[in-house]
Amino acid sequence: MKWSVRLLMVTAAAAASEQELLEFKQDFLEFDLNKDNQIDAQEVRAQFKGNLDAKELHQFFIDVDKDLSGTISLQEYVDYAASLNSGGESTSNPYRAPE
């Protein structure tokens, strides 16, 4: 793993293990269909194949897109996913791409 990616991931919630961080990164890469290192609304919709309504999509971006850019960076996604795990909630990410 590149040191820059590792450093980026280490700044996420401290409670996340290295294995969890790798899983979060893999989830992000699965969403990032055009490989521009950002997730946009169309990519989220495509991954959920229509099973995510407009309200849920909007809430996801409110929760994750901290810089309000309209896209989600790897850091934003990792921070969000790590916070779900460390917050005492289910370790299952509700916004993980369906398999």
Keywords:
globular; mainly alpha; EF-hand domain-containing protein; calcium ion binding
Structural commentary:
This protein has helices at 3-10, 18-31, 41-48, 54-64, 74-86, and strands spanning 38-39, 72-73. The chain has 99 residues and is mainly alpha-helical. The protein has a single domain (3-86), classed as Orthogonal Bundle (Recoverin, domain 1), CATH 1.10.238. It has a two-stranded antiparallel ribbon with strand order 1-2. α2 (18-31) packs across α5. The chain is globular.
Number of strands: 2
Strand content: under 5%
According to CATH, the fold-level topology is Recoverin, domain 1
CATH superfamily heading: EF-hand
* CATH C-level class: Mainly Alpha
> In the CATH hierarchy, what is the architecture at level 2?
Orthogonal Bundle
Average of pLDDT: 80
Query: Alpha-carbon distance between the termini?
Result: 25 Å
N to C succession of SSEs: HHEHHEH
Rg, nearest Å: 13 Å
Major β-sheet strand ordering:
1-2
Uncertain ranges: 1-10, 88-92
How many strands, what sense, and barrel or not for the largest sheet? 2 strands, antiparallel
* Helicity level: 40-55%
Going by helix content, strand content and strand pairing, the class is mainly alpha
* Total helical elements: 5
* Coarse shape: globular
Number of domains: 1
Brief account:
This protein is mainly alpha-helical. It contains five helices and two strands.
Topology:
Layout: H1 3-10, H2 18-31, E1 38-39, H3 41-48, H4 54-64, E2 72-73, H5 74-86
Antiparallel strand pairs: 1-2
